[in-house]
Amino acid sequence: MDSEAAPPAPPMHSTPIHTIAKQSRTASQTTYTTLNQRNAALQSVKASLLQSREAILLANKSDVAREEKKGTCSPQLMKRLVLNEAKFNGLITGIDQVIALPDPTGQVSLARELDQGLNLYRVSCPIGVLCVIFEARPDAAVQIASLAIKSANSVILKGGSEAIESNRVLIQAIRAGLEQAKTVPVDAVQLVATRQDIAELLQLDEYIDLVIPRGSNALVKHIKANTKIPVMGHADGICAVYIDHEADPVKAVNIAVDSKINYPAACNACETVLIHRACLTTVLPELGRAMASKGVTMHADDSCLPHLPTTCTVPATAEDWTREYLCLEVAIKCVETMEEAIQHINRHGSGHTDCIVTENTQSAETFMQRIDSAGVYHNASTRFADGFRYGFGAEVGVSTNRIHARGPVGLEGLTTYKYRMYGSGQCCHEFGGATGKKYTHKDLNMELPDRTHNDVPPSEEKKEEASVVGEGDSSAMDQMWVPGRGC
């Protein structure tokens, strides 16, 4: 790249925000195509991205060069901004994995007979129009768009300004793929550019069904305070690893180190290690040496300080227990009991992912029941908190909400449900009272009835009569078999 500044990015769009939202609503009402059609659209998107590979990587280099010259991005943010060959190949693999996943829509979670011929089903369906605000990770645009297409939703994307060129070229390629496939509306995926665009979108609750902000607590709180649209929050990741007095020392060190250094800039990286006092002279020195060998700076309380390398350890402050470092730094605190660890995590954590290392399974179960987080692990790195690793193909983000979706949000988290009732003429007045019908409330197989054609032909004794009834004669319908009646 030359040293001259990249030219100012032209406007992302010229379409009024209200129109974009309306287009997304219209698209969402026609996006609910068959699974094969949605998968065909994803295959076409993948082909378009591959065809645009050079332009995408070049646009990303432009973004990186501009931000490096400005010098305002943190090292963690710059790491997320880079879209190299390896990350690009990962995006393509991610689309293949989303294609391979089962259809999240049309899944039956309740099937119940209320009366003979009156059956109730609870069936998954798309949410509708999503507005996703994400940080300077251009690869997130592809992951989110792929999940939206697969789950039959429409999505309006707003990426970080640092990745403005990358996002523009990526979304152009995605929309070109949808245009080529012609099985999912092009406006199922749209991109906006500025904070003002988002401010306008947040007022359009008539068109947008769910807002998903991926960023700091301040961003999530700002979004919630400025919209009537439901918000699924993805906020800070202050994840903790608690090393119990019955922990295996080797597991404890390996898990804590991996949770911290595997990818420190991720929201599922460990930011706090809580260690039982009984482990101060056994496990902690080994942990300190392992962390030091990886270049980690440790912020330790008074009990832990004497057992850690002095060259890379500093006294902890109260702010360290609620700090998301996103780099090679970690807070380390001594606790007297598991109960103290639980109280610390529930008070200072962010509700993301927390782990206990112990060989006592009863202690592990107590910890996992009591910790109020989206992910609670026993003897496993917090870095596993990821939609890809969970087998979701990709993720929109990690929700720390307590309702609807929690933890890594994949396809299932982008659906809601509706109740379908299949009747055969029943009316409410027929039920109840001394002489009325009684509800059967019998559970059925979790499969929707086959409605691709008439269930059965007219009964044999009615065939001749039905065949001579003139077209338009309402009595013809009277001779047809009705589901649940006379079968």
Description:
- The chain is an alpha/beta fold.
- It has 2 domains: 209 residues, Aldehyde Dehydrogenase, Chain A, domain 1; 151 residues, Aldehyde Dehydrogenase, Chain A, domain 2 (3-Layer(aba) Sandwich), CATH 3.40.309.
- 36% of the residues lie in helices and 18% in strands.
- It is built from 15 helices and 17 strands.
- It has a 7-stranded parallel beta sheet with strand order 10-9-11-8-7-12-13, with helices on both faces. Strands 16-2-1-17 form a 4-stranded antiparallel beta sheet, with no helix packed on it.
- 43% of the residues are buried.
Features:
487 residues, alpha/beta, Aldehyde Dehydrogenase, Chain A, domain 1, Aldehyde Dehydrogenase, Chain A, domain 2, four-stranded antiparallel β-sheet, 36% helix, disordered N terminus
In percent, how much strand structure appears in the residues? 15-25%
CATH architecture of the largest domain: 3-Layer(aba) Sandwich
Number of domains: 2
Helix content: 25-40%
**Category from helices, strands and their pairing:** alpha/beta
- Per DSSP E runs of 2 or more residues, the count of β-strands stands at 17
What's the CATH superfamily of the largest domain, by name? Aldehyde Dehydrogenase, Chain A, domain 1
**Strand neighbour order, sheet with most strands:** 10-9-11-8-7-12-13
The CATH class of the largest domain is: Alpha Beta
Shape: globular
Multimeric organization: single chain
In DSSP terms (H or I, runs of 4 or more residues), the helix count works out at 15
